[in-house]
Amino acid sequence: MLNGFINLNKTKGMSSAKAVAKLNNLLKSSGADHGKIGHLGTLDPDAEGVLPVALGRATRLFNYFLDKKKVYYTEFVFGKTTDTLDESGKITDICDKIPDFAAIEAALPSFAGRISQIPPEYSAIQVNGQRAYELARTGKDFYLKARDVDIYNIKLLESLCGGVYSFRIECGGGTYIRSIARDLGLSLGSLAYMRYLKRLQSGPFSIESAYTLNELAEGAIKDKIVPLEKVVKETFPAYHLDGSLAAKALNGVRVTAKGMPNKDFALYIGGELIGIACSDAKGGLNIKTRLI
């Protein structure tokens, strides 16, 4: 069975779920036995770029990638907004004020660091058991709580035509770029929405090594699978356990080992990757996720 990742370059106009379904069909047609399959973080239908897809045992690592750094290239239109905060929505308001380059650049420091943001109404967040976008489409009133997100860097790149500016944004998981557009516009006494979004990086996966579905369909798809061990090595510090402690740990016996990293680490026994582990409050070894 295949265990690893495919760094998919999702095209615009396709949902993440549909992209994974198409990839699954490609794998089946190639005769690949991969078991479970799933993407590591949704990319909106109107967005394109990096969508890492896990295969087999690699799907057990989903939660570890939720908060990994994401990098985006995006374009904001100032002077108007839409109900979805992106180009797919209907224009709901227009204003005459279009901020200049210097004004936008001066406003960006307040959008860096750990900030509070309200998600877009057209989002997949659950509200009393329903998706927010489903409620928004029916015109129902509902409330979305603000939540803290991490913006590691936000850089204004250039001024394009018609009140459009481009940005590069590095952020943590759960960040809505559309919300940044809305809030940045309002902070400048204007309005704004996101007209374009491309994910350049998601954790250890970058756009330079990503494949579109068409490229994967050309053949040799198995050669484009990134091994599970390679991604783990690039993502987690390594810790090797040998001897009698190793045998006990494999049999579920609680052991105390010296020198363990103070965060999640890749556990190796006899040179083989066993899983993701951590040190518990009393210094014991806790294997959180087995990968064998």
Quick gist of this model?
The protein is α+β, with helices and mostly antiparallel strands.
Write structural notes for this entry.
- This protein has 292 residues and is an alpha+beta fold.
- The protein has 3 domains: 4-68 and 204-232, Pseudouridine synthase; 70-202, Pseudouridine synthase (2-Layer Sandwich); 236-290, Archaeosine Trna-guanine Transglycosylase, Chain: A, domain 4 (Roll), CATH 2.30.130.10.
- Helix content is 20%, strand content 35%.
- It has 7 helices and 18 strands.
- Strands 1, 2, 3, 4, 7, 10, 11, 12, 13 and 14 form a 10-stranded mixed sheet that branches.
- α7 (243-250) links the parallel β15 (238-241) and β16.
- The longest helix is centred in the N-terminal third of the chain and has 14 residues, at 16-29.
- 31% of the residues are buried.
